[in-house]
Amino acid sequence: MKKKRYNVAVAGATGVVGGEILKILEERDFPVDTIRLLASERSAGSCLEFKGKSEKIYLLAKESFEDIAIGLFSPGASTSKVYAPIAAKAGCIVIDNTSQFRMDPDVPLIVPEVNPEAIGGYRKNIISNPNCSTIQMVVPLKPIHDRARIKRIVVSTYQAVSGAGRAAMDELSGQVRSIFNMITPESNVFPVQIAFNCLPHIDIFLENGYTKEEMKMVNETRKILDDASIGITATTVRVPVFIGHSESVNIETEKKLSAEEVRDILSVAPGVKVLDDPVNEVYPVPVGCSGQDDVFVGRIREDESIPNGINMWIVSDNLRKGAALNAVQIAEVLIREYI
Ligand code: NAP
Ligand code: 3JN
Description:
Blueprint: E1 6-11, H1 16-27, E2 32-39, E3 47-50, E4 53-59, E5 70-73, H2 77-89, E6 93-96, E7 126-128, H3 132-148, E8 150-159, H4 166-180, H5 212-224, E9 231-238, E10 245-253, H6 259-267, E11 272-274, H7 286-289, E12 295-302, E13 309-316, H8 320-337
Parallel strand pairs: 1-2, 1-5, 2-4, 5-6, 6-7, 8-9, 11-12
Antiparallel strand pairs: 3-4, 8-10, 10-13, 12-13
The structure holds NADP nicotinamide-adenine-dinucleotide phosphate and ligand 3JN.
């Protein structure tokens, strides 16, 4: 039987997330009939390669979605706010990488290894991709929650600059070059020098003293795990790494689990790879995890300060599982089970 193919639009195609989406559609042989690349007036008219062919980039506009079945969006939250509903109204199912619709009760917030069943609720024709830091945390926490019920999560992140887009990656490399040439580095994307530094500041500060990135982790995790009772507190930090977010995660569970039991649970969890042999210096690091699809977990150990606590170190490629791969996986579930 001939495989059904879909017209796919990529909005934000010239960005780091959009570029990764195109790579992943190719790698996974997603059944694309025609591809429509969309971006701002800055890149409209230029071309990008897809499946060995040069494809023109069009200006994202109201008319962009006629005959498009699936729209993979990463043009920024304010642009998704305008164009995702227009695309959805035209009959396109939008998978949106921005924060714009994540907490809308009529928009499913999906990580395919965790809550694929929630995809069916796309009443508005929009499905949201969670924030990258949330995605890589919930993939390993879900099977632990199922086994022992997580009561509380304390997470600190070490986030790569690629999470802030192409200009942020250019800023880190430019600052490193400047410093090695004895020139004072310029900061335009980040508020403070990022090279050889760590900034406890991602997205804007809110009235409660947390950043928006920290509150995204709290609220999105509760929505995905469908459990508003979990206590979650986050500190999100930008570090001078190009690709790969790392997280130190401490959990308190209702039922006691040993470190060995957690290792056993995670060794068969979908989308997770355990790298945990510290004596032989085996643990996940961003340089080793970038370009890979799994969420890597190591340094699994009991928290000796409380009766039922576990510490772990979680690393994943923020552009792949944290954004583009998760979005394409959602599209795969959609075409397999819904459209
Ligand atoms: P980026 O490298 O800066 O790329 C931004 C993309 O959006 C470019 O393709 C840009 O087109 C396009 N764009 C900007 N304004 C537009 C407009 N008015 N109309 C049409 N296209 C427009 O950023 P990125 O890292 O790819 O991230 C893009 C967005 O994805 C972020 O703002 C965020 O909302 C989301 N994101 C989500 C995650 C996640 O955790 N799931 C991770 C990273 C990013 P031009 O090249 O033409 O300017
Ligand atoms: O900074 C990171 O590492 C992840 C950033 C994600 C991001 C960047 C700009 C705008 C988002 C997001 O996905 O939450 C947004 C946004 O859509 O609000």
